[in-house]
């Protein structure tokens, strides 16, 4: 028998009581819809319907100028925009983020009567975007007034555009022009689109001007300015901004895109995050679709690389292990050039070499296999990069000397030699690991200062003095264990610890799994059609280092290593080339949804605890984060979808003791009455809905009704909702509540069960 349930105050449209029978049909309560066939004319669901009508209007405009349908990601962005959200466009290659921003600004100016500011990094981009704006404006017959100001204009053209700014509904310019031209920075705008957010965030002055130009509450503008001027404490100022936001809506929107690196948490970033509620400047990292191969070299390393390059062709990156040094990179460059391969060493950022490689003038680039290498961090060319070659296992030399003190590398070494450590040294080992872990955030300059303090035996201040003492303790520990013959024997016999002797000094070769993951990841990038196929080849020069690399990588990625001699290399090359053709079509706007095997969806993934949210989000790279009324939602790409991951924080409803017998109405049938959970933030006591203060005297509560409203809002934005509550009786109850309460907002809801929080298990479900 199916039991009817009443959810108190949880009608998704008006907030009155609603039955499970109505919810499972995706309907509002009987008060809102006396007849199921009636149309809503007010309330939350009515607003969602109105937003969806606007989305249809937008889709018509899009299809008229683009001659194709919108991708799921583009639809998601437009929904968020129409909700009035500020957000970061987490945009894979070919997803059409610039096109969406152009059409959004035209739609907004024409139909929403709001003024838009588009900030781009270069004058050339301003010219290109403004030309496209004018073209679309004409094709759609919108008659929107557009002004664009940039350095490529003649003096006469500049004056003409400056005059137009007064009455233009869309203004396109660079962040430098925003700072320099009063005619621009004294105007007020409702919405700002900022492309290449990296360069924008480096200029706090540009951020200050944009905050002044946006139509924000004057109180917030004044507080932000006082924080910049150091007139008030940053923490206090941000707290004041958050209080103002509780009672006043932020009608302006900030849409940013183009993050390529994680930015420092500066004062400017903190202010922007507090006002607009999302992580600005986080670099999105995506999954990998890489065939990881190894091969042993019968010839010299250089000859083996030449052989591979001739066989596989252009579009390669070659990574040199740190133990071989940059000199080997230069020698390899000369060797390949002498043998007809167009290649260039990329040991520091080099715009010309980058452009030559991008445009096919040269076949490949050579760089160092380290996380700090510009070839590892700064290259994102999914159409061009086909494969990577490692001229030896990625590794570095660790010397236990004061002048070589490096907390992170010493930690990696300790992890490497842990199996050889005897029980009598375990406590010292664990203490050293704990202390070094506290020093991982030291800058290069600080580490150098500690080294100088060690060499000169001088007293330092604060954390640097602590670091100096940790270094001395570390040297003493390593000296002690290396004098122990049993430990030394265990290290030498270990299949994963590489130990050498250099001038009567022991040196360790430590595999660099971080460098391998990041460097090989250049060959497999997310684009709108999925994740490109990549090939990574490690030429093994040190077996123990390779064993160690495989072991360390196992903690982060499930990599199935293949012997290059045993795979069908031609088939792999064909798959790689096919993906690159699709990327090219995507970047040109010619790739259609029906032509792709993968259709990127947007999904809301709900688990029970915030801790699980963070863990799952980090399986797929560095997540972006947005706050919805205090509820953290993490955004990542994983499993061919944009995942918005958040927590229910346990149960979201409980029996209402005000109804029937302990919350159950008993007549001919049993009808449970469930209410949102209201819990005291001081003592944790659960309260009834009408209570305004706790028995402990506290008047501040956690109210699950707010979380339910936020989950409903997000559910209305995405293609699919996935409920991943625990596979036990409580998890089933939470999942059942979520299913019913979200059904009117999204009819595509699935339940998944996983028994361990691992990447493998999450991908499986």
What's the rounded overall pLDDT mean?
Answer: 89
Q: What is the terminal-to-terminal distance?
A: 30 Å
CATH top-level class of the largest domain:
Alpha Beta
Shape: globular
CATH architecture of the largest domain: 3-Layer(aba) Sandwich
Number of helices: 29
Rg calculated over all Cα atoms: 30 Å
β-strand percent reads 15-25%
* Total strands: 32
Largest sheet, in brief, is:
7 strands, parallel
**Widest β-sheet, arrangement of strands:** 11-12-10-13-19-9-20
* Number of self-contained structural domains: 4
Fold-level CATH name of the largest domain: Rossmann fold
Structural class: alpha/beta
List segments where confidence is low: pLDDT < 50 over at least 5 consecutive residues: none
Notes on the structure:
The chain is built from 29 helices and 32 strands. By secondary structure, it is of the alpha/beta class. It folds into four domains: 172 residues, Rossmann fold, CATH 3.40.50.300; 179 residues, Rossmann fold, CATH 3.40.50; 116 residues, no CATH class; 165 residues, Rossmann fold, CATH 3.40.50. The strands form seven sheets. It has a seven-stranded parallel beta sheet, with helices on both faces. Helix 4 packs across helix 5, helix 12 packs parallel to helix 13 and helix 18 packs antiparallel against helix 19. The longest helix is centred in the N-terminal third of the chain and has 23 residues. It is globular.
């Amino acid at each position: 028998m199916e039991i009817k349930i009443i959810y108190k105050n949880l009608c998704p449209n008006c907030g009155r009581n609603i039955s499970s029978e109505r919810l499972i049909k995706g309907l509002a309560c009987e008060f809102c819809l006396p007849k199921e066939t009636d149309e809503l004319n007010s309330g939350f669901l009515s607003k969602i319907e109105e937003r969806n009508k606007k989305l249809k209007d937008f889709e018509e405009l899009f299809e008229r100028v683009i001659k194709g349908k919108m991708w799921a990601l583009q639809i998601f962005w437009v929904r968020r925009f129409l909700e009035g959200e500020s957000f970061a466009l987490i945009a894979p290659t070919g997803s059409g983020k610039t096109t969406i921003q152009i059409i959004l600004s035209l739609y907004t100016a024409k139909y929403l009567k709001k003024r838009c500011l588009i900030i781009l990094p270069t004058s050339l981009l301003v010219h290109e975007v403004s030309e496209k704006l004018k073209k679309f404006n004409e094709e759609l017959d919108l008659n929107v007034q557009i002004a664009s100001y940039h350095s490529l204009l003649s003096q006469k053209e500049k004056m003409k555009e400056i005059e137009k700014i007064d009455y233009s509904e869309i203004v396109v310019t660079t962040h430098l022009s925003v700072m320099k031209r009063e005619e621009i920075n004294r105007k007020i705008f409702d919405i700002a689109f900022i492309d290449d957010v990296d360069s924008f965030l480096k200029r706090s002055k540009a951020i200050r001007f944009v905050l002044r130009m946006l139509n924000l509450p004057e109180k917030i503008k004044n507080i932000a300015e006082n924080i910049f001027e150091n007139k008030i404490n940053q923490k206090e100022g941000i707290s004041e901004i958050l209080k103002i936001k509780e009672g006043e809506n932020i009608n302006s929107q900030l849409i940013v895109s183009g993050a390529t690196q994680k930015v420092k948490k500066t004062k400017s970033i903190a202010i922007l995050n507090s006002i607009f509620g999302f992580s600005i400047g986080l670099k999105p990292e995506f999954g990998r679709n890489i065939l990881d191969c190894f091969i042993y070299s019968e010839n010299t390393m250089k000859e083996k690389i030449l052989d591979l390059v001739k066989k596989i062709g252009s579009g390669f990156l070659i990574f040199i292990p740190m133990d071989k040094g940059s000199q080997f990179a230069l020698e390899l460059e000369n060797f390949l050039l002498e043998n007809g391969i167009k290649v260039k060493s990329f040991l520091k950022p080099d715009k010309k070499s980058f452009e030559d490689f991008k445009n096919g003038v040269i076949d490949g680039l050579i760089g160092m296999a380290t996380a700090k290498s510009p070839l590892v961090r700064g290259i994102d060319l999914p159409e061009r990069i086909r494969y990577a070659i490692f001229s030896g296992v990625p590794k570095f030399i660790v010397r236990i000397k004061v002048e070589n003190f490096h907390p992170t590398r010493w930690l990696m070494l300790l992890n490497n030699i842990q199996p050889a450590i005897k029980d009598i040294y375990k406590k010292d080992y664990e203490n050293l690991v704990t202390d070094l872990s506290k020093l991982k955030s030291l800058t290069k300059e600080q580490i150098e200062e500690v080294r100088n303090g060690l060499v000169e035996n001088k007293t330092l201040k604060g954390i640097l003095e602590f670091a100096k003492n940790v270094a001395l303790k570390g040297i003493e520990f390593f000296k002690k264990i290396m004098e122990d013959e049993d430990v030394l024997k265990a290290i030498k016999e270990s299949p994963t610890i590489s130990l050498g002797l250099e001038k009567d000094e022991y040196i360790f070769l430590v595999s660099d799994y971080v460098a391998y993951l990041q460097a090989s990841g250049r060959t497999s990038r997310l684009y709108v059609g999925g994740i490109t196929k990549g090939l990574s080849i490690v030429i093994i020069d040190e077996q123990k280092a390779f064993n160690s690399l495989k072991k360390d990588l196992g903690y982060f990625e499930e990599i199935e290593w293949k012997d290059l001699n045993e795979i069908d290399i031609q088939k792999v090359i064909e798959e790689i080339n096919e993906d690159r053709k699709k990327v090219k079509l995507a970047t040109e706007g010619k790739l259609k949804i029906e032509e792709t095997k993968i259709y990127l969806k947007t999904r809301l993934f709900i688990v029970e605890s915030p801790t699980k949210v963070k863990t799952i989000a980090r399986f797929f790279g560095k997540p972006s984060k947005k706050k919805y009324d205090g509820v953290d939602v993490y955004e990542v790409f994983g499993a061919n979808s944009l995942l918005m991951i958040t927590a229910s924080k346990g149960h979201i409803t409980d029996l209402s003791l005000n109804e029937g017998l302990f919350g159950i109405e008993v007549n001919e049938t049993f009808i449970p009455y469930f209410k949102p959970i209201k819990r005291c933030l001081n003592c944790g006591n659960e309260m009834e809905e009408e209570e305004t203060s706790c028995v402990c005297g506290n008047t501040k509560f956690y109210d699950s009704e707010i979380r339910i409203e936020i989950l409903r809002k997000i559910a209305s934005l995405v293609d699919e909702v996935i409920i991943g509550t625990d596979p036990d009786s409580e998890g089933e109850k939470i999942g059942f509540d979520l299913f019913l309460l979200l059904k009117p907002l999204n009819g595509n809801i699935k339940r998944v069960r996983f028994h361990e929080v691992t990447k493998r298990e999450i991908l499986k479900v």
